[in-house]
Amino acid sequence: MVELSAAEFEQLVVEALDELPDFFQQKLQNIEVLVAEWPTPAQLRSVGLRPGQLLLGLYHGIPLTKRSGAYNLVPPDTITIFQGPIERVCRSREQLVEQVKHTVKHEIAHHFGISDERLRELGAY
Asked: In terms of Cα–Cα distance, which of 8, 15, 10 is closest to 80?
C-alpha cells in the first residue's frame, strides 16, 4: 500500500486532469472534481456496494448526453476521487499515479454519457 499526503494526492488528480486532451477539457461543463479520503455509506449504496467494498471514484450528475435545452441553473455535477481505496489497491507510487489517471478518465467518461458496460466493451475498465 502506498500512502500520500492529501496535498500530494490532490496534485496527482490535478495533473491527471491537466493531461486530458484539450477537446475533453473544453467539454467539461458545470462539473467539479473533488477528492475525498473514503466514500460515505450513502455513496457506496448509490452504486450498489456494501461498506468495506472499494470504490475508487464516483460520478454524480447529469451526463452531457442527457442534458437538454432546459438544462440551466443546475448545481455542478461532481466527480469524487477517493484517496484511501486507491492507495489500498496500489503497491507502488508509479501504480498509484496510473490508477489516479485511470480513475479520473473513467469518471469523466461517465460525464460524457459512457456507461460502465460500454467501458468494459471498449476494454477501458
From this structure: 10
